[in-house]
Design brief:
- There is one protein chain.
- This protein is an alpha+beta fold.
- The chain is built from three helices and five strands.
- It has a five-stranded antiparallel β-sheet with strand order 2-1-3-4-5.
- A hairpin with a 6-residue loop joins strand 1 and strand 2.
- The model has no long low-confidence stretch (mean pLDDT 95).
């Protein structure tokens, strides 16, 4: 089983997307979370709040015998703030407020975040099919 997740920002034509972990990197490796958030904020300077819509997306694949047998995905819609809030989470969590909520992922406890998260949704989608596959 493998997964990949990323942040897609509408005002940036879906960036950072698949490059979320490497967004601020000058080379092939990942950048720090702090550098990625700083770059995102610079890229969004001057963009009004109503155009800061974004989503976290997760894709999961399960392979058996070298062949992908299951795929699942999960999405959580939200918006990007103009400044960081909260000390929890990781990555872009201090900047991301899920739709219908007032707090960032970094301000939520782990159970609250897990109930809303893109990974949680992808795993919930995958679970019954994986259990059926495993018999």
């Amino acid at each position: 089983m493998a997964d990949d997740s990323g942040l897609e920002v509408d005002a940036l034509a879906g960036a950072p997307g698949v490059r979320s972990a490497r967004y601020a990197s000058e080379g092939p490796g990942n950048a720090t979370d702090e550098a990625n958030r700083a770059k995102l904020l610079r890229e969004l300077e001057g963009i009004p709040n109503d155009r800061r819509t974004a989503r976290f997306r997760c894709a999961i694949s399960v392979a058996l015998g070298g062949r992908v047998v299951l795929r699942a995905s999960g999405v959580v819609e939200g918006r990007i703030l103009g400044a960081e809030r909260g000390a929890g989470g990781f990555g872009y969590d201090p900047l991301f407020v899920p739709a219908g909520h007032a707090r960032t992922f970094a301000e939520m406890d782990s159970q609250e975040k897990a109930a809303l998260s893109h990974r949680g949704r992808a795993l919930a989608d995958l679970r019954p099919r994986l259990l059926a596959l495993l018999g």
